[in-house]
Amino acid sequence: MTTSAAGQPLIPQPPATVAALRQAIRQIAPAALPAFTRELDQAADQSRQGSDLAPLQRFIAQWAVYVHIQRRPDLAAGLRHWEKIAESGDAAQARQAAHEIGRILDEAHAAVGLPAR
User: Fold this and answer.
1) Is the pTM here over 0.90, yes or no?
2) Domain boundaries, the chain
């Protein structure tokens, strides 16, 4: 992974296109490329079968949010932290984790120009 000064994005937020998102993932989270490709294939198949672009639009939105988070190591680490607490914490900790995960995702959606979840 590319390194960055604390709090600074590793790369600029790419345009919300398949090619730009693939390139960004290749730079900042190469281990996610197989999932990206698999999910792209699924979305393309669903779009073809239903003659509907919605599955591809959801795919692009999901991966634009993922890239937004992963390009900021501090934000990605915070998300992983809260995900672990959600899995292993007690009920109160899980509620707090759900709130924090939702906040991170809502901010990422807004940052890439998407409505909140």
Assistant:
1) no
2) 14-71, 73-117
